[in-house]
Specification:
The chain is built from eleven helices and eight strands. It is of the alpha/beta class. It has one domain: Alpha-Beta Barrel (TIM Barrel). An eight-stranded parallel β-barrel has the order 1-2-3-4-5-6-7-8, surrounded by eight helices. α4 links the parallel β3 and β4. α10 packs across α11. It is globular and about 45 Å long. Bound molecules: pyridoxine-5'-phosphate.
Length: 240
């Protein structure tokens, strides 16, 4: 059964709306862990729109499961990550104008930059994952870049607007997962997963961890964070 990483960026998005704010991000992370999250995920964006440096430092000392820091390969962010020492760093593409991470990293095009960042992070004992499209060439390039973990972008699957597209994108993820496994990579997946579409991905063989944020935080508005995480954990644990 895949593990569940809960991304709490959007708890911070809400907190940033007022200053001072009573929304305690550390408590949110704690509740996620108590409700079954296997890891806590945050993205320190270059524009600091939600997660702040102080959040990552506080989470580093309070998270008991695993802290997974999503980050770009910008030099400043890599330097900060080396000092935060999260358990895992997930390298993602980052564009200022986007609402959320659009598409995976182009590992082929950014080979040098990515390899350099991976080396620096690994030297600090941080596990490194690359967020990529379910594309065999990108997976091969990720392996060559020296990582042992990849996260497959499930956005195309999640946004499919017909049964034919759902099937096609699910098959792509399935094939990508077995190819990556054959190369000895640990395979995670995430982006756009929700209470309706998660089971098909969770049921694929060899998926190690699913990272889910937006849908859980939205559902928490109605049922509370603990219940929202518990319900997602239950779906991830269902074997179809
Ligand atoms: N995985 C990665 C690498 C991401 O960048 C994001 C979005 O921050 C997620 C998972 C979670 O996506 P969502 O918020 O759509 O569940």
């Amino acid at each position: 059964m895949p593990k569940l990483g809960v991304n709490i960026d959007h708890v911070a998005t809400l907190r940033q709306q007022r200053k001072p704010s009573q929304l305690d991000l550390i408590l949110a992370a704690k509740l996620c862990e108590l409700s079954g999250a296997d890891s806590i995920v945050v993205h320190l964006r270059e524009d600091r729109r939600h997660i702040q440096e102080a959040d990552v430092r506080a989470l580093r000392s309070s998270v008991n499961t695993k802290l997974n820091l999503e980050m770009s390969v910008a030099e400043e962010i890599v330097r900060l990550a080396c000092s935060f020492k999260p358990d895992q760093a997930t390298l993602v593409p980052e564009r200022r104008q986007e609402l959320t991470t659009e598409g995976g990293l182009d590992v082929i095009k950014l080979k040098k930059k990515i390899e350099g960042s991976v080396k620096k992070l690994k030297k600090q004992g941080i596990d490194v994952s690359l967020f990529i499209e379910p594309d065999l060439k990108q997976i091969r390039a990720a392996k060559d870049a020296g990582v042992s973990i990849i996260e497959l972008h499930t956005g195309a699957y999640a946004n499919s607007d017909s049964l034919a597209k759902i099937k096609k994108n699910l098959l792509k993820i399935k094939e990508a997962t077995s190819y990556a496994c054959g190369l000895g990579l640990i395979v995670n997946a995430g982006h756009g997963l929700d209470y309706n579409n998660v089971c098909a991905i969770a049921g694929l063989s060899h998926i190690y961890e699913l990272n889910i944020g937006y849908s859980i935080v939205c559902h928490a508005v109605f049922v509370g964070l603990e219940q929202a995480v518990r319900q997602m954990k239950k779906l991830v644990d269902i074997q179809l």
